[in-house]
Automatic annotation (TrEMBL):
The keyword Transferase does not apply. It comes from Marinobacter koreensis. PANTHER family: 5-OXOPROLINASE SUBUNIT C, CARBOXYLTRANSFERASE DOMAIN-CONTAINING PROTEIN. Pfam families: CT_A_B. Residues 29-312 form the Carboxyltransferase domain. Gene3D superfamilies: Cyclophilin-like. This is Biotin-dependent carboxyltransferase family protein. Keywords: ATP-binding, Hydrolase, Nucleotide-binding.
């Protein structure tokens, strides 16, 4: 981490603020999950707006309650949830690059819409990679600003990389069309899985026509959805690899969508898997919010993801 400097100090930690880069890959055979931003979409836009290329480490701020002071002049952007962010008590515009002067205090209050905000500073936060990534996974005690999977605590200091080259230093605001409205009922695209034919016809009808409610049992491992009971002829399987967005259906018939800090293998039948952008959207849903599922094909999902990545790359 040569040429890094202290950029930010934590005045108040809040419930959960984690350092996240794109994630930890190539290690699931060791039982190590990927981590990374629960809302990949907002994380990517926060980095792009700050002038960072794909993969730079940002802060994922869940619910709010975080207070930070700048130890040097910084450029930053916040994307994702509206957590009532203020800079020296003045509202901070979201999805826009902002100047953060030395000594100014950035505060996140509480959710107005969505759950997770992403704070990116120009150059990206610096930390020593663990297994090739700084993504923070608390359960596995890996990554984060200290390498031990720790969430931010009061008094912690974050170092920042020097600002790298950017093709888009003049543009400061994201187009309105890329900013999600988290108050709307999301329709989540799902790729049908290997066991989908084992679910009853009524269950398949319910899966894609009912409204599902986000349960209080939701975190970075996964989100439980409550609604009609889904019945599957297969009750259990030999454990197999679990990918991001996998929708497992345990014996109670209530699906669980697995997110970034999921286990690496599982033995419940799967309805399918949410696309990466739909998993991102689910990560912003508050308990009690309703969602719908929509079956999609791999071609459409790949086209959507490639278009998203291309727009991010063009921006930076």
């Amino acid at each position: 981490m040569t040429d890094t400097a202290i950029g930010v100090r934590v005045l108040r930690a809040g419930p959960l603020a984690l350092l996240q880069d794109a994630g930890r890959f190539g290690v699931r055979h060791l039982g190590v999950t990927q981590g990374g931003p629960a809302d990949l979409y907002s994380w990517a836009w926060a980095n792009a707006l700050a002038g960072n290329r794909w993969g730079a480490a940002s802060l994922e701020v869940t619910v709010g309650g975080l207070e930070l002071v700048a130890e040097k002049d910084l450029a930053f952007a916040i994307a994702g949830a509206d957590l009532g962010a203020t800079l020296d008590q003045r509202p901070v515009p979201l999805w826009e690059r902002v100047v953060w002067k030395e000594g100014q205090v950035l505060r996140f209050a509480s959710p107005v819409s969505g759950l997770r905000a992403y704070l990116s500073v120009r150059g990206g936060f610096a930390a020593e990679p663990v297994m090739g990534s700084v993504a923070c996974v608390m359960r596995e005690q890996l990554g984060g600003f200290d390498g031990l999977g720790s969430k931010l605590q009061t008094g912690d200091q974050l170092t920042v990389h020097p600002a790298g080259p950017s093709n888009n230093t003049a543009t400061q605001q994201a187009p309105s069309g890329v900013r999600p409205d988290f108050s709307l009922e999301p329709v989540l695209s799902l790729l049908p899985g290997a066991q989908i034919a084992e679910f009853s016809g009524q269950s398949l009808y319910d899966a894609f026509n009912a409204r599902w409610k986000v349960d209080e049992r939701a975190d970075r491992m996964g989100v439980r959805l409550t609604g009609p009971r889904l019945d599957c002829r297969v009750r259990s399987l030999i454990s197999e690899g679990i990918n991001l967005g996998s929708v497992q259906v345990p014996p109670d018939g209530q699906p669980i969508a697995l997110l970034n800090d999921r286990q690496t293998i599982g033995g419940y039948p799967r309805l399918g898997a949410l696309t990466p952008l739909s998993a991102s959207r689910l990560a912003q849903c508050k308990p009690g919010q309703e969602v719908r599922l929509k079956a999609t094909g791999s071609g459409a999902a790949l086209q959507e993801y490639r278009a998203f990545r291309a727009r991010i790359e063009d921006w930076v």
